[in-house]
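Quick question, first post here. What does this chain look like in 3D?
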Amino acid sequence: MDEFRLIAAIKKILTQGPAAKDETRDPRVEIGIGDDAALLNVPAGKIVATTDTLVQGVHFRLDWARPREIGAKAVAVNVSDLAAMGCSPLAALLSYELPCEVDDRTVLAITKGVAQAGFLYDLPVVGGNITSTSGPLAITIAALGVPSSARVLTRGGALVGDVVMVSGHLGAATLGRLALERGIGAKFSELVKAYRRPVARVSLGCAMAADGRVHSVIDISDGILADLGHILDASGVGANLDSSAILLPPKALRAASLLGVDALECALMGGDDYELLAVVSEKAVGDWIKAGMRPLGKITKRKGMRLDGKSIKPTGWNHRS
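> Answer (accepted):
Ran it through. C-alpha cells below.
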C-alpha cells in the first residue's frame, strides 16, 4: 500500500485495536495521530524525554523474533529509560525507516507489538513518521514521561560508602542472543525470551524515586560495567564489586558452557538486560533487598572500578567500537 494508506492502517492499530491506548478516551491526549503535531494535556511540572532506535541487523533480526516482539521491545527499551529516572510514561512517537523489501504485513505486525506494549505501560502513541531508506529497517521511539515523585533520579549522586544494587538476573539476554546466533535458541527459551521481550521496571523505578536514600539509578542496556561506569563518572567516585554477588542461574551456566563463553563475562558486559542498577545508602539496603534488589558492591572514594579488588575497565556494548 502507499504511504498514506499505510499511515491510516498504523493509526487504526494504535488507536482502535484491542491493545490500543485510544486517544479519544485518554485525557492526556487532546490531539493525537493525524495532525501536524500532537497536543498533550500534561501536569504542571517537568517532563522527561528519551529516544532509542532499533536497527535490523544490529538490535534485531526478523528470523530471530516475531515482528510483534520487535515492536514491543522498541517500546520497552525507551520506557526503561523513564523507569531509571523514576518517571511514569506519558506519550510516545513512533517512526519507521522502511526498506522496500520489508512488506506492509511486517510493518503492521511490528506496530501491533508497539500497541500492545503501549497498553502494558499506559503509553499512548500520539504521532510519528515514515520514510523510505536504502539501508536496514529501523524503528525509532521517542518517549515522554512525568516524574512520579518530587525528584527525578539521575546518574549523578552516588556517595562514598553507598551500596551498588541491581534488580533481576544479568546476562540472560546476552546468552539468549548468542543461542540464537548459534541456532540453538530452542534449547534455552527462557534466555531467548529475556533477549526478545525485556520488561521495563517502571514500578520499581518510581518506588526508588520516592525513597530519598536512593542516590543514583541507571538502566542496564550496555552491560553493568559500562552502565555503572556512567554513574561513577557522573558522581566522581569509584566502586568495588564482588563477583560472588552476581547470581548466575543454572540455566545460564549451562548455556554458557554449551556456547563456550564465560557466564560472568556475559553478566558483566553483555547488555540488553534492562534491569535497574541503583546506588543506595547503606541504611536502605535491607529494605531494597526485600524489594528484590541484590547488593553487588560499594562506592569508594578511590576512582575507577574494581572487581574483587582488582582494577577492571568499564567495558560493555559500544556502537562505535
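Residues 67-84 form the longest helix (18 residues).
The chain is about 35% helix and 25% strand.
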